[in-house]
UniProtKB/TrEMBL annotation:
Keywords: Cell junction, Cell membrane, Gap junction, Membrane, Transmembrane, Transmembrane helix. Belongs to the connexin family. InterPro entries: Connexin, Connexin_CCC, Connexin_CS, Connexin_N, Connexin_N_sf. It is found in: Cell junction, Gap junction; Cell membrane. This is Gap junction protein. It is a multi-pass membrane protein. The chain crosses the membrane at residues 21-39, 77-97, 118-143, 177-203. GO terms for biological process: cell-cell signaling. One of its GO terms (cellular component) is connexin complex. It comes from the Eukaryota. Pfam families: Connexin. It comes from Fregetta grallaria.
Amino acid sequence: MSWGFLRDLLSGVNKYSTGIGRIWIAVVFIFRLLVYIAAAENIWKYEHDEFECNIKQPGCENVCFDHFFPVSHIRLWALQLIMVSTPSLLVVFHVAYRENREKHHNQKLYKSPGELDGGLLCTYLISLILKTGFEIVFLVLFYKLYNGFKVPRLVKCDIRPCPNTVDCYISKPTEKMIFLCFLVATSCLCIVLNLSELSYLVFKYSIKCYLKRYIKKRQ
C-alpha cells in the first residue's frame, strides 16, 4: 500500500496540535512509519518461505507456521499504524465543518476554526482517548497472540498432519527481536505522550474555567 495518505493526514493534523501532539506526530512519522517502510517490512517479507521444519511431511510446515504466527507481525503493525492515526481525522473533519459553517453563514463564527476550544477541544480529547485505547489494545493483542514480546529461535510443533513433535526454525530471530522491542518501545512512548497531552489539556482548561468563574464571582 501507499503510505502517502497517512503522511498527509499526520501533516494536516500537525497545525491543530499542541507541542506534545507535535512530538507524538514526529515519533509516529520518524520512529514508526519510516522504520516500518525502510527496514521492518523487508525483514518479515519472506517469513513464511524462510520458516523451516526438520521434516518434509506435506502440510506440516504450513500448519506449524499458522499456529505460531496466526497473524503476520508486519500486517498487524500496519493495521496498528492505521488505527492509531485515523482518530486524527476527527479533528480534521471538525475543523472542516467549522470552515464550511462560516462559509454557509457568510460571517465569522469562530476566532479561528482550528483553535482548540469548545466542541473542537472535546473532539481532540476523544481522538487522544481513541489513539491511546488502540495502542493498548494492539499491545495486548501482540502479547496474547505470540505469548509475550519475543521471537524464539526454535519452536516445537506436534500439530497434525505432523507425525510427531518436530523442530521448526524461525529466520533472523535476533534481528526480528531487536525491531520488535523497538516498535513496542515506541508504542509505549506514544501512549505516554497521549496521556501527557490529555492530562495537560484537561488541566489547562480546568484552570481556565475556574479562573473565569472566579472572576465572575468577584465581579
